[in-house]
Design goal:
Layout: E1 2-3, H1 10-13, E2 27-28, E3 34-36, H2 38-42, H3 47-52, H4 54-58, E4 61-62
Antiparallel strand pairs: 1-3, 1-4, 2-3
């Protein structure tokens, strides 16, 4: 997973549409990090964003995803 930089709003990122019509889908992990999946990061559909905004793209860091575990009693 790739952690969003602090200056990127997950709600705004979710409004970005790729070249084939897919929207990005940021999610939050157990540590409160907002991330996008490896599949989204490496998708050909979103590669143009890295070229258009290299400074922003450089702020994404790969991290280990820690899922939120819900316990129902």
């Amino acid at each position: 997973m790739y952690k969003l930089p602090e200056n990127i709003d997950p709600a705004e990122l979710a409004q970005i549409q790729g070249t084939e019509g897919t929207f990005l889908h940021p999610i939050q992990d157990a540590d409160g990090n907002w991330v996008i999946s490896d599949q989204e990061w490496h998708s050909a559909e979103f590669q143009h964003l890295k070229q258009e905004y290299p400074e922003l793209a450089a702020g994404f860091t790969q991290i280990e995803f820690k899922p939120i575990i819900y316990k129902f009693e």
